[in-house]
Amino acid sequence: MNETDTAPVLRFFKALAHESRLRLLGFLAQRARTVQELAGLLGLTEPTTSHHLGLLRAAGLVSLRVDGNLHWYTFEPSELAPLAKSVLSRQNVAQWAGETKVEVPDRLIRNYLEPDGRLRLIPAARKKRYPVLVWLAKHFDFDRRYREAEVNQILQTRHWDSATLRRELIGYRMLTRERGIYWRLPEAQWLAAGTNKSGSHQLRSGEV
C-alpha cells in the first residue's frame, strides 16, 4: 500500500482527530457560519480556524460558499456516509495491512513445516535449527515491544513449545527482554549459529 492509496484514509481520520475540528463540525451542523463567527465561538484566531476548515473541506466534510467578502461554511452530512463507505470499504481496510513482513521460508524450513505452516518439530541440530529461529525472529516487528504472553501467542502459531523457542531466540540474541517486556534486536547483534550458550531444549523422540 503506497502513499497515494493511504492519502484519502489519512485525510479522513486526520480531519476528525482534533477536538477543535469536531467542535467546528458541531457548530456547522447547526447552521452555516463564517470564519469570523466560528473563530469567536472556539476562541481561536481566524487563520487557525481557516486551517481547520481547510482540512475538513479536503476530507469532504465541509463546503464553502463565498458571498462578497464573507466565506460561509456548511456541514455536508450527505457526503459523510458515501465518504465513510469508500474510505472504510473492506478492500481499502484490507490494504492497510500492507505487504507481509514474514519472509517465505526457504526449502530447509519448509521441510519442517506441516501443510498449515506449523512446525512439525524443532530441529535438534543447531545448523538446522538456526535458520528456523531466524525465520521465527522475523515474525516480530523491529520497533515494537511485546509482553511475554504476546511472544508466546506468536510463537505458538508455529509450534506449541513456545518456551523452548523463546529461550532459543533470547539465547541467540534475536530477541531480548527486560522486566517481562521483549523486543527484537538488530540482526547485527544476533549471535552466529552454534554460539548460543543458553542451553538447548531436551530432545524428544522423533526429532532430527
In short:
The protein has helices spanning 3-16, 19-30, 35-42, 46-58, 77-87, 90-95, 107-110, 126-137, 148-156, 162-171; strands at residues 33-34, 62-67, 70-75, 146-147, 175-178, 181-184. It is mainly alpha-helical and 208 residues long. The chain is elongated, with a radius of gyration of 27 Å.
Layout of strands and helices, then pairs:
Blueprint: H1 3-16, H2 19-30, E1 33-34, H3 35-42, H4 46-58, E2 62-67, E3 70-75, H5 77-87, H6 90-95, H7 107-110, H8 126-137, E4 146-147, H9 148-156, H10 162-171, E5 175-178, E6 181-184
Antiparallel strand pairs: 1-3, 2-3, 4-6, 5-6
Task: Give an account of the 3D structure.
With 208 residues, the protein is mostly helical. The protein folds into two domains: 3-95, Orthogonal Bundle (Arc Repressor Mutant, subunit A), CATH 1.10.10.10; 107-189, Arc Repressor Mutant, subunit A (Orthogonal Bundle). It contains ten helices and six strands; from the N terminus they run ααβααββααααβααββ. A three-stranded antiparallel sheet has the order 1-3-2. Helix 1 (3-16) crosses helix 4 (46-58) and helix 9 (148-156) crosses helix 10 (162-171). The longest helix has 14 residues, at 3-16. The protein is elongated and about 80 Å long. Mean pLDDT is 81; it is low at 199-208.
